[in-house]
Amino acid sequence: MFFNLRRFFLASTLFFSLGIASNVSAAEVDSIHFLIPGGAGGGWDGTARGTGEALTKAGLVGSASYENMSGGGGGKAIGYLIENASSNHGTLMVNSTPIVIRSLVGRFPHNFRDLTMIAGTIGDYAAIIAGKDSPYNNFADLVAAYKADPSSVSIGGGSVPGGMDHLVAAMAMEAAGADPTKVKYIPFDAGGKLNAAILAGEVSAGSTGFSEAVALAKAGEMKILAVTSSKRVPAFEDAPTLVEQGYDATFVNWRGFFAAPGLPKDKADAYRSVIAKMYDTSEWEEVRARNGWVNIHNPGDEFVSFLENQEDVIKSLMTKLGFL
Amino acid sequence: MLEGLYLGITAAFTFFNLVMVISGCIIGTVIGMLPGLGPMSIIAIMIPIAISIGDPASALILLAGVYYGAIFGGSTSSILINAPGVAGTVATSFDGYPLARAGKAGKALTIAAISSFIGGTFGAILLFGFAPFLSKVALSFHSSEYFALMVLGLSAIAAFAGKGQVAKALMMAILGIMLATVGETALFNAPRFTAGIMNFQSGVGFITLAMAMFALPEAIYLILDPLRSKTKSGSKINNLRITLKEAKIIFPVITRQSFQGFFIGVLPGAGATIASFLSYAVERNLASSEEQKEFGKGSIKGLAAPETANNAACTGSFVPLLTLGIPGSGTTAILLGALIALNVQPGPRLMVDNPEIFWGVIISMYLGNIVLLILNLPLIPYIAKLLTIPRNYLIPFILFFTLMGSYIGQNNETELLLLIFLGFSATILKFANYPLPPLLIGFILGSMLENNFARAMNIYDGFGFIWERPMTAILLLLSVLLIFLPAIRSSLALRRQKIH
Amino acid sequence: MLNLEKIIALIILIICIVYAYTSFVIMQANLLPFELNMTVLPNSLPKVISIFGIVISLFLILKKDEDIEKDEDQSKIELNNVLNFYYGKALSIIFLMILYTLCLRPVGFILSSILFLFFSSFILGERKFIKLIIICFIGTTIIWLLLEKVLGIYMRPFPYLIQTMVS
């Protein structure tokens, strides 16, 4: 879980002492127990505590508590939620894109269909970046060099081979009509280390989270060759999308919430309803802005179809790359 | 620059900010003593409070106090109960704990405090003078150079390879590297050596292994052997005095390591852990053969070196953070988050756009170091006295803190069972006089060695980096030289003897 | 204790052989197609260190026992004392730690910690029960308050049944 380290910390750190929230009598949901499949201080931790903070402060939820349960890269918490489903109707588990990837490659026996999908709440786009002195000024330059000699273009990323950053690079090359299996992918420990390697010129280009690249791009230290959103992102309008450059590829790294399997429909709807209302509150806006999150709301059934679509795309790509 | 100094001083020296730095130091020291809560988690915890202050300079001053306090607190638990809660203080326990066992806990803590102070202060001065320049140097380091640094760091194992122990020390280091290969790494898609057990996918946690190798076997030995818990010459335990002779011995070490540690800290891919191991390895290899024997058994040089280096490195890690906006460690990543939340964007523009913050941070670090020293020196006798708590109470609480170290914030019982199992095995290894520190060194450096080596190999499609990158070649040569320096020196001495 | 040394070396040798088998045979067979083009494979380092490991552990098993230099090393075990060690106490406390781990979630942090501290102190020979209980209670409560209320780090404080009844 190394991707987006900077944002992870940024997010996570802000909410440690918010476990005790005030009771508001008019709350629609009395309490939510957030289950976080990773340790305190990670990205999931930040998302859960941030959402909990906004929900309780806005009076939509009476109180929120947070439980970290790390192990098996998130697999342990998923297993726990499924095995103890009947006693966990008050629990929401936070998760993100890796639940799709990791269950595809069989890291844990369950997948998102085994859980009740509540909603996708926030997300981040991916970006292809290069150093400021790099000869590549747009994605077409990079593709041209890659098509000429794939081994001359090294693309760094902050996740493992077959992880999100690698898949995005391969997906973009595939959209450009190049062979995605030839991508010379160099993994780094985290987004911050990748940024250092880009500035140092150790790799030709990088694949990373958009939010992690924005600050250095604004400062003119690196170039964003392409972003995987469908329209330009307001946080940095100068970054061109892949789509507008003529490459049909989009990707969202989402984060969202899941509940125990077999959750009664009225309870699930209640959770979905408070999350939907949350977006209009100033409390959420404050949390969102502080963390630099992008609202990507996918409630209920939309979330299901979104996940299934993402699973299809990733599955075919991973099969092509030889991971499956 | 003088203007910057003025800006920084006016920002830092207000009554409110002094209160901030003092409370930061106290909070950091107290919480930092709990294994499992290192600087990173404590700063993370303090951030909401810091942000609620609103003024970026005051918030940072508070956090700088917490940062230094936490590092000092971590050293304290390494020295007193052999429980290094952060990787950066593992090397501290190599010699700090033996000193405490020999009844010199007060002295060890004082050396640690003073070395940290000098390392941190030197670091702040270097940061003040050379930050933009050094950030450029740092960026010239690629994976291949990091690989060379790890090779040098691994030579710290030599300190535990005394007579008849060479093969055992190597064996332990190899076991450590093997443990490091369990689970997922950044490098490869599939987790390795998990035997199909899901819980092993995340690998063995650092704190779990540190507690299992150091704190737990020690505690078990205290139970096994009641004589062991009777600390020798208990009256000296709170004696802080360092003799002039000792000061002369550690002075060159502290000076060297302030610079070296700071520079290693500047490198975004290295940081305080590497800095402390490197300092330990370098100082041991530079020491005379008499002094070398002391390393790992209570050498004051061996304590001063990592303590200086890890503090200097922590300060150094602010260079890439402030000048480039790149966090080199988990702690600086969190600080970056805090800065952004306070509407300050670190990076090349920071010095131009918010000079008062840039200089304020530097001055506050300096201040944090001074306050920490002033606060802690009078407290050391009392902290050292903790060891004189009756063993019927002391041991249960040591065990409790050891277990909590790997449970806090994770709530993973499997990790605890693993800790108990590894701790039990480590106790038996200790029985047969297998040295345990090399196992931890191998574990920490092994994965970094593999990561950087593999990256360099993949980028250059082979060993090309050795001749294509002169800096790598120089560093590798330097590492080899340093590793063989003791041998070269003794053979020279032998030859000289023969001539006479 | 020399025999113990050899027994340990033998155990390590077995570990190394299993490790070597895994990296040379199993991992080699499971390599993904794209990984074969990489210069460093997931099993490259494991292969190298497993060979080193086997060689060194063999050396440790086969080498002649020599008188290891006797020094006043604090970290070494004083062998003449070994027969008087409290093995029973140490083993019961290790057992207690395992029990504590298993109780943490179902029994809750506070109660299980108090019991753990109490019984480990009891095993060590403490018999002033009132004082002991007070110290265990205060110690646990302070840590829990610090973690839960000040630092916001959650641990299940109470037994599972009570917890579910409350919520």
Q: Helical content of chain C, roughly?
A: 55-70%
Order of helices and strands of chain A: HEHEHEHEHEHEHEHEEHHEH
* CATH topology description of the largest domain in chain A: D-Maltodextrin-Binding Protein, domain 2
Continuous helix count of chain C: 6
Largest interface, per-chain counts? B-C, 68 and 75 residues
Number of domains of chain C: 2
Using the coordinates above, name the CATH class of the largest domain in chain A. Answer: Alpha Beta
Low-pLDDT stretches of chain C: 69-75
What separation lies between the terminal Cα atoms of chain A? 20 Å
Order of helices and strands of chain C: HHHHHH
Domains of chain A (count): 2
Return the average pLDDT of chain A rounded to an integer. Answer: 86
Based on the structure, what is the oligomeric state of the protein chains? heterotrimer
- Kindly name the structural category of chain A: alpha/beta
Give the helix/strand class of chain C.
Answer: mainly alpha
Mean pLDDT of chain C: 83
Helix percentage of chain A: 25-40%
Instruction: Estimate the strand proportion of chain C.
Output: under 5%
Number of helices of chain A: 11
> What does the main sheet of chain C amount to?
none
- Strand coverage percent of chain A: 15-25%
Question: What would you note in describing this structure?
Answer:
The complex is a heterotrimer of chains A (324), B (500) and C (167). Chain A has 324 residues and is α/β, with parallel strands linked by helices. Chain A has eleven helices and ten strands. In chain A, 39% of the residues lie in helices and 22% in strands. In chain A, helix 2 links the parallel strand 1 and strand 2. Chain A is globular. Chain B has one domain. Chain B contains 22 helices and no strands. The longest helix of chain B has 35 residues. Chain C is mostly helical. In chain C, 68% of the residues lie in helices and 0% in strands. Chain C is flat, with a radius of gyration of 25 Å. Chain C starts with a helix and ends with a helix. The interface between B and C is large, with 68 and 75 residues.
Give the arrangement of secondary structure elements.
The complex is a heterotrimer of chains A (324), B (500) and C (167).
Chain A: H1 5-13, E1 29-36, H2 43-57, E2 61-68, H3 75-83, E3 91-96, H4 98-104, E4 116-131, H5 139-148, E5 154-157, H6 164-175, E6 184-187, H7 191-200, E7 205-209, H8 210-218, E8 222-227, E9 252-259, H9 265-278, H10 282-291, E10 294-299, H11 300-321
Parallel strand pairs in A: 1-2, 1-3, 5-6, 5-7
Antiparallel strand pairs in A: 3-9, 4-7, 4-8, 4-9, 4-10
Helix pairs in contact in A: 1-2, 2-10
Chain B: H1 2-12, H2 15-32, H3 39-53, H4 56-81, H5 90-101, H6 105-139, H7 143-154, H8 166-180, H9 206-224, H10 244-266, H11 272-286, H12 289-294, H13 300-316, H14 318-324, H15 330-341, H16 350-353, H17 355-385, H18 391-407, H19 413-431, H20 437-460, H21 465-468, H22 470-499
Chain C: H1 2-29, H2 44-62, H3 87-107, H4 109-124, H5 129-150, H6 160-166
